[in-house]
Every structure is written in structure tokens, then in C-alpha cells.
Amino acid sequence: MPQFSFTARDAAGQNQSGQQEAPSANALVGELRERGWLVLEVKASQGSATSFNSWWPSQWLPPRSSDVSLSLRQLSVMLRSGLTLLAALNTVSKHSRRGRLCTIWSVIGDRIEEGTSFADALKEHSCFSDLVVQLTRVGEETGTLDKVLLRASEALEAQRTLKTSVFTALMYPTVVLVMTIGVTAYMIFDLIPKLERFLGQIGKRLPAITQLLLDISQYCRDYFIQGSVLLVSASIGFYLFYNWLPGRLWVDKWSLRIPIMGTIFRLTGTLLLSRSLELLLASGITLIEGLRSVELLMPNKYLGQLIGQARERVLQGSELAGPLTVNGAFEPMLGQMIAVGEQSGTLEETLNEVTIFYEAELSRLVKRLSILIEPVIIAIIGGIVGFVYIAVFMALYAAAGG
Prior knowledge:
Blueprint: E1 3-9, E2 15-21, H1 25-34, E3 38-44, H2 50-53, H3 57-60, H4 65-80, H5 85-95, H6 99-113, H7 118-123, H8 130-142, H9 145-202, H10 208-222, H11 224-242, H12 245-255, H13 261-282, H14 287-297, H15 301-315, H16 332-344, H17 347-401
Antiparallel strand pairs: 1-2, 1-3
């Protein structure tokens, strides 16, 4: 069993330190807390077997959204069953699936013991979004922390499902494109040079299509280094431009106008806004604070900017719907439904209806894209392979006929 050194403070305020064997660092933290001690530091002793575990990927990889969602759900269940928050945090810190998240929950427990609020303790860690922090703050103020944590868990699961849908839509064509580039590169740099040497031994004039194939291959080989340098330079330039705020806004704005994929991006932004804002409003958060949180959540900075403008308009006494009806940004129905919800005083219910509608719409679009993209990919690959095949066949035919 590994050995750990610890530093803690007992109930009398005296510092305590020493070494002790334990199954894990989290297990030792739990044992010391059961004594009523405030744990300041626990680390593996020199030469301990656990020193190897610190290099294991799960110990340093950041927590996944699914891990955070599961932990929030566990906290909700334990609070609902009557456990105190500190006891629940102590339990979840021992049983989280990822080592780093165990440490984070343990640190949060220590911060609460020092007098920090639960929401402020969560805010110190980037794995908890502003949405989770805001909901937690409301739960602490209203005494409904168990219900709010469950809502936060469900919100994270919904966001993960949304990301998975978009990832699925993008992954298939991306993988096929990479494979197509790989096959084409193999033909240009390996197969066609061998074919060129073989045809050169025949000593006859090649058909035009065969000569075109050989010329393309030779051109790619001659300018491979220049092309690689240009591609790397363009990639670095795009990266720097995208990380410059005006550049990021420009790219995010025009990405919404890409055929098919732009529609998916617009649906994703619309769905994220309607679902997150409805959840925040239903939990008791004001419209202004809700818009501020959703603005930070939005991965598309251009859409986030529009939400920020909408928040400023609301602060000035104007309606929310106006800035959200900009052409080519959010889906048109969003602004119309929000305007109806504002006039009727049923904004939460209206946003829920928008969420349901666009969830179904995004699902249909992803399925339709998967069906349409397959014949296009087949046509592209078939065109490349067919061109090479015909060129070779024509050359052999000319050689045999001569």
C-alpha cells in the first residue's frame, strides 16, 4: 500500500503532519477529515508506488464534461437524501472517475470549510462553466441546491449531445477527405512514378490522358516542398488571425454562411441560446444575468456578440428580440418566438418550444447530410481512381496496338 505525507490542522487549530499508508490520496484525505481535521496538503512520499500513478494520463488530463455531469448528479442525489454539502463533496471526491476531478472536489471542499461559497469555489476551476456557477449560486440562495445541481447536470448532458450531433455531421466527410488525400498522395508519389518508368521502357507516344496524369504527378513532386511550406505558413497565419478577436469575429460570422455546414452552425447556436436561457430563467436568474452567462457559453463569438448587444438593448428598456433577428445569424423563428413570449409574458415556455423544435430540426439535418454526403464522396473517389485507371488502360492499349 502506498505511503503519503500529510499536513493538516486539527480542531484546536494546531498543525499536524506525518506519514501514513492509504489506498490513495483521496482515501487519506477522507480519513483525516473524519477526525475533524482541515487537510492542507497530501502528497506521495518519496519512492512511493503512487509516484508512478502521477504520470498516468487520468491523473493529469482535464475532467471531461461527462465526468462533471455525473458528479453534479451524484451531489444532487446525496443532498436530496439528507447529506450535508461537505459530506457529499467528500464522498464524490473519492469516487470520481478521473483523478484530477477528485482533487478538484477535494479542493472545493476545503474552500467551503474556509468560508467560501459553493458557487465561488466552483468558479475557481475552468471545468465548471458559467452556466453551472450561476445555477449553483441561485440554488444556494434559494435553498434548492439539489434540484439546481440536477438541472445543471442535465444541461451539460444536453450540450454534450448537441456537440456530438455536430461532431458526427463533420466527422464522416472529414475522415473520407483525409483518406482521399492519402490515396491520392500514394498514387502521385509512389504508384505513378513506377508507372512512368514502365511506360518509358515501351518507347511509344502516350495518349493525352496518360500524359496529363504523368504531368500532374511530376508537377506535384517538383513543387512538393514549396507547397508544404505554403500550406504550413497559411495554417499558422490562419491560427494567428483566428486568435485575434476581430479575426475570430470575421471567421465566425462568415462560417454561418457556408452552404449546409453554416445551417448546422446556426441551428447549433440557436439551440444553445434557447435551451440555456430557458434553464437559467426557470431557475430564477434574471434575464440580464442569463444573457450574460449565455454570451460566455456561445462558442461562436459573433453570435455571442449579438447576445451581448441584445443584453445592452434590454438594459436600455428595449425588447430582446431585435438584435437576435439579424439576417444570417440565429434562425429566423427564434426572434419571432421571443417577441411573442415577451408580449405574452411566457418567455420561458416559448424558449422551451423553440428548443424542442430546433432539436428535431438539427437531428433531421444531420441525418439528411449523412445521406447526401455519401454519394458525393463516392463520386469524388471514383473520379480520381477512374481517371488513373483509364489513363493506364489507354497507355497499355496504345502500346499493344502499336
